[in-house]
Automatic annotation (TrEMBL):
Keywords: Acyltransferase, Biotin biosynthesis, Pyridoxal phosphate, Transferase. Pyridoxal 5'-phosphate binds at G134, Y135, S207, H235, T264. It comes from the Bacteria. The keyword Nucleotide-binding does not apply. It catalyses: 6-carboxyhexanoyl-[ACP] + L-alanine + H(+) = (8S)-8-amino-7-oxononanoate + holo-[ACP] + CO2. This is 8-amino-7-oxononanoate synthase. Substrate binds at R47, H161, T381. Coiled coil: none annotated.
Amino acid sequence: MSNQKAKAPLTPPLSPGDAGGEGAQRADLLARLDVRTSERAQASLLRRARTMDHADGPWLEIDGHRLLGFCSNDYLGLAQHPQLIAAFKRVADDEGVGSTAAHLVCGHRREHAMLEEALAEWTGRERAMLFSTGYAANLGALQALLGGVEGAICVQDKLNHACLIDGARLAGAELKRYPHADVDGAARQLRSRPQAPAMLATDGVFSMDGDVAPLRELAALARSEGATLMVDDAHGLGVLGEHGAGSVAAAGLSAHEVPVLMATLGKALGCAGAFVAGSAALIEGLTQFARPYVYSTALPPALAAAALAAVQIARADDARRAKLAVLIARFRRGAGELGLPLMRSDTPIQPLLLGDADAALTAALRLETQGLLVTAIRPPTVPTGQARLRITLSAAHEEEHVDRLLDALATLRLPAAG
Ligand SMILES: Cc1ncc(COP(=O)(O)O)c(C=O)c1O
């Protein structure tokens, strides 16, 4: 999910006393939440989790229907890889399920240590530190680096993921956003506060758009402005760069140029969890000050073992990336021929921009009647007027799957590319 700021509710907050109670003059928080939820529903923007009964590669079973999914982030098709499953089972058999404690207590197991080493080596950093989710990793890194720093600013792309935005807020830094991928805009924000300690943070690949950040230009800007550059490569790791080392590697940037690198294990690596990689000093500092690391239970060791198997495959198996590239090219060619509203993306995230939230929802429903599962992404996850079908491709797909998707899209009479 991305990050657009939730709009202020149309209905004003309940006034004090609405909660009733014995003389207390407070707004009723639960009632207020109900009001906000109803407003979402009225705007056709309600979010709802659907229960998938079974997953089989890209196929999903829901309510007795078997659907071909184009919405997972399992870009390399590793989530059900036999080597990951075997590693998971082996360590679960030997070590049980839970890690039983935070890393700094007794939760840090051999499997975590081995995974951290492999991630550091893959990304060309001195060290890496695991977090239980990407959300926690970003909160932890930003809070450790910016928290309590007098007058600090955090300059971010407008389309950065929600957890980068939240991390800056939680750290108490002044958040300054620039228009998407606009390096001059980033420069203006940095130069508006030339003396302020500054972090420049960007997604490597934008989660709802699929395009890659102008990383080389941002690195040059960070250098000239004395800002610290942080890249969230959740959607780039495993997919981009030599041996899948990610968008930062693909841009040819060193650990010095991008001193804070974060990526997740739940997307191309098919597992769950995340890490921050950087210098030994950075990781030492995070060990002291990153609260989501210090105060949270370590990932299950079996999951760390599965992720290590995933790293080994993702590094070595260029054929998966080559297959993915063929599928992406086939989809883009076909969608272009159909005049579909493709966005500028060469990654497995291939959104079709429909604009209207109802139009996106209707398109997703109609695809589902044809046996395809594609998620409609609506505000506030994306800006108002930019609802879309977020189509994602995976090495688990076959070319005929892409053709089937294109055939179904052709029947929808979507708005033409602008
Ligand atoms: C760019 C980006 N960063 C961070 C996250 C959060 O990662 P996680 O799902 O592991 O919390 C996500 C994904 O959901 C993401 O898309």
